[in-house]
Amino acid sequence: MTIAFEPIAWAAQGVRILDQTLLPGEERYLEIGTIDDMVEAIQSLRVRGAPLIGISAAMGLAAAASAAAKGATLDSDWLARAIDRLEASRPTAVNLKWALERMRAAGDAAFTGERQGRAVAAALRAEAQRVWDIEAGMCRYLGEFGAQLLTPGFTVLTHCNTGRLATGGLGTALAAIYVASQEQDMGIDVVVTETRPLRQGARLTAWELVRAGIPVRVIADSAAGSFMAAAEIDVVITGADRIARNGDVANKIGTYNLAVLARAHGIPFYVSAPRSTIDSTMASGDEIPIEFRGAGELEAAPGAAVVNPAFDVTPAELVTAIVTDGGIVEPPFEQHLAGVLEQVTPDEGRRG
To answer: Which CATH superfamily is domain 8-139 in?
Structure first.
């Protein structure tokens, strides 16, 4: 019963995005054609989710480059400034840097080949499409591998949003649920944490699953422990915005709480993320930059100080396994994550 929607698409004058700040109440699409507008869309969470942020930045860069080429302002300096501006828009998710480095390389190669203007813009658009295809293809593998960790009738607890809205493909953690429920008929039940303060679980994940016809219950973040104690949860699966070399995982704030609770109750805690999320330059989670967002996202008494981290870091020792598009990775993570990074990139054409 999946009801189709497109979180991102090419448009006549740029890139079309689904404004996720308006969900679930309103399904509105915006067209973006400038770097400033794409930065605003990323920072305001109109587009969100680590893989989709990378895809959106790449496509937005290509669209803006096309306009710059028409005005004869597309050169290597323009490209460098645009990439730096986009890369600074959100610091924690490494997929953004991965996508933009691919775009930088494609642009540098085009300029080195003495192509100019529209030829460079065309090369950038082709590379942006490759970024999208790669991420979407990775999602298909994540779903197929992740479903291997589920059993018919399982109740899965997940946090934040890790589905089509976050990836431009099938999803990361949610991909396993889609494959298990819709393709393998496992009868999976889903419990979604509300995900304070912006309620991505209640607003976005629940919206996706209802449209897909998959049973879903929304609970307050603080209710997760009681559900585990009551044997209501069989497995926890979350996504990731960055994974350090040793297997430490940065993800939406509240993920660390769930990992601790899962360990206390003997429940497997899995992380699902494409290989573009693994940052081999970071030795551990201590090196991962954590984004802090504005105080206005939390309701507090006037005069009270507000601290609003958007992400936390879950230590590798609390993670049962990491699902990647290269397979299911178990401890020791440093050794095994390095192994999957060396594998050949999956088929870029798999969009399911």
So the answer is: translation initiation factor eif-2b, domain 1 (1.20.120.420)
